[in-house]
Amino acid sequence: MKYSNAWHLRDIILLTLIAIFFGVIYWIVGPVYNLLTVALTPVGLGPAANDILMGIWVMAGPLSGYVFKKVGSATLGEFLGSVVEMFLGGQWGASTMISGVVQGIASELGFTFTGYKRYDWFSLNLSVLTTTIVTFGWDMIRNGYAKYNIGLLIALFVIRLISTWIFAGVLTKAIVKLLDRTHLMQTQTR
Amino acid sequence: MNPSFKFLLAVLIALEISFTSTWIVNLALAVIGLLLILTSRPTFKRLILLFFVPLIPASALAVAILLQSNAGIHFALVLFTRIYAYVFVGSAATLTTTVSDLVMSLEQNAHIPSKFAYGFLGAFNLLPKIVSEVNIIRAAGNMRGQALHIWSPQLYFKAILASLDWSENLAEAMTSHGFSEEAPRTYFKRIRVRWWDWLVLIGSLVLLQVALFGFHLQ
C-alpha cells in the first residue's frame, strides 16, 4: 500500500492530539515514577525506576509511526509528547525536549531500517530494539550510567529492553490491532 | 527575549551540560534559572514543587553513583546539580512564555509552516478537554466493571478514537474559518527578532563556554 508523505492540517492536529493524550498519560505516570524511585533509592537502584517505566515514555513514537506511516511521524509524535509534558510541568525541564527528540529518532530508526515499507510485527520489534539501544546510550551520557559497574549496567539494559518491548511492542501492537478492526485509519492516513 | 531564541538557548544549554561535568556551572545555571523564574512571580505552591520534584531523580542518580560505581562524590554532585539546572533553566523558559507566543514566534521567526503552527496551537488548546476525556474514558470503563490501567490497550484505543473525531472537526472548523494550508498569511501580532535577542543568545553561550573551560582547567 502506498502512503502519502505530505502532512495535512488534519494529520497535524491528530498527531498533536495523540501526543497530548500521551503527554497527559506520562504526566499521570509521574507519581508512579517518584514512588518507585523513592523506594529504590536507598539501595542505590533509583535509576532502575527510569528503566522499568521507559516503555511507557517511548510509546508515542512507535504508535504514531505505525498510525501515520509517514517519514518522521514517530519522531514528531514523541517530540510533541515531550513538549506537552514539559509544559505540564514534567520533572526533567529543558532536557525533556532533548529526550523527546532522542527517543523519537530512536524509535523512528526501526521504521527507517525497513525503508518505511513494512509496518508489521517485525518493524515494531526492530523499533523496540533501536529505541532501547539509542536511549540507553543517551542515558549513559546524561544520567551517568556509563560509570556503573558492568553487572548493574547489563541489568538496567535488560530491564529497559523488557519494558520497551511490553509497552512499545506488545501494547502498541494491541492498540493498532484494535484500530485496524475499526477500519477508520485506512481512510484517515492515506 | 524572543520566544524561539529563549527555547533554543534553553535546549542548547541543557545539551551542553549533558556532556560536561562541572557542578559549579550547573549550580550557577540553576541559580540564574531560579532568578528568571522568580521574575515571573510564580505561586508559592509552584515554587515548592519546583524545588522538591527534581529532588527525587536527582538524589536517586547521586545515590546510585555513590553506591553502585566508583566514580566518587564529585560525579554524584555533578549529576545532582545537572538535574536542577535542567529543570530550572527549562522552567525559566516555559514559565515566562505562553504557548501561543512560542508558536507564533516559531512560525514568524523560525519559519515553521503555518499549518504546523496553527495545527499544533489548535490541538494544544484542547488540553483541558483531553484531561477530562481521559477521566471520562476511565470512568466509563469503571461503570462496566472494567478497570482501565496504564497497560490497557482500550485506554489508548479510545483516546485515539476521540483524537480522530476531534481532529476531523477541528480541521474542518479551521478550514471553514478561512484557514488554508499554503496561502500566505498576515499577522495580527508580529513577533520580531531584535538585536539584543542575538546578543543574549550568543553572549550567554560564550559565557557558558568560558565558564566551563575555566572550571575545567582548574
From TrEMBL, chain A:
Keyword Mitochondrion included in the entry's annotation: no
Pfam families xref list: ABC_cobalt
Keyword Membrane: yes
Highest taxon of the lineage: Bacteria
Family annotation (InterPro entries): ABC_thiamin-permease_prd (IPR017195)
Keywords on record: Membrane, Transmembrane, Transmembrane helix
Annotated transmembrane regions: 12-29, 35-60, 121-138, 150-176
Name used for this protein in its record: ECF transporter S component
Species of the source: Secundilactobacillus hailunensis
From TrEMBL, chain B:
InterPro entries assigned to the protein according to its UniProt record, in alphabetical order: ABC/ECF_trnsptr_transmembrane
Intracellular or extracellular location(s): Membrane
Domain of life assignment: Bacteria
Membrane topology of this protein: Multi-pass membrane protein
Pfam families per record: CbiQ
Primary location recorded for the protein, binned into one broad class: membrane
Membrane spanning residue stretches: 12-38, 47-67, 73-95, 195-217
Keyword entries, A-Z: Membrane, Transmembrane, Transmembrane helix
UniProt protein name: Energy-coupling factor transporter transmembrane component T family protein
Organism listed in the record: Secundilactobacillus hailunensis
